[in-house]
Amino acid sequence: MNFASVRIITDDVDRLVKFYEKVMGVSAERPVPVFAEFIVPSCTLAIGDSQMVSLFGAGSGVAAENHTVIIEFRVHNVDAEYERLKPFVDEWVKEPTTMPWGNSAVLFREPDGNLVNLFEPVTEEAIKRFNGRGRRIVEVSEVCIL
């Protein structure tokens, strides 16, 4: 089994697409107006309109009601990303700090209230833990964060 994507359900696809284009530094693919995908080497972030929920079955989702998932992006420099995103982020949950497990991290809420974590392994143990995961981090100037 291969992990394919995470999908955010929203009542305002255009607003979230614009926000994540700024955060990720890539343009979304929009096959239809009610759906968008950010396809990067390590994963796909999808955004779907709440109208689509009925296609998955009754009770399968409510827009902007998530309180348990954190969307995470590994970056090269948490402090630089924090400075870059200050003009676009309205609610910062945690300014850059080193977490007990060895990652430097900054957390914020995106327009629908979902938590987003930008992190970089900074301790020797954290760097070792992430070295074998096969992900290549690409600079925003190259195309995207992940």
TrEMBL record:
<keyword id="KW-0479">Metal-binding</keyword>
<dbReference type="InterPro" id="IPR004360">
    <property type="entry name" value="Glyas_Fos-R_dOase_dom"/>
</dbReference>
<dbReference type="InterPro" id="IPR037523">
    <property type="entry name" value="VOC_core"/>
</dbReference>
<dbReference type="InterPro" id="IPR029068">
    <property type="entry name" value="Glyas_Bleomycin-R_OHBP_Dase"/>
</dbReference>
<protein>
    <submittedName>
        <fullName>VOC family protein</fullName>
    </submittedName>
</protein>
<feature type="domain" description="VOC">
    <location>
        <begin position="2"/>
        <end position="121"/>
    </location>
</feature>
<dbReference type="Pfam" id="PF00903">
    <property type="entry name" value="Glyoxalase"/>
</dbReference>
<dbReference type="InterPro" id="IPR051785">
    <property type="entry name" value="MMCE/EMCE_epimerase"/>
</dbReference>
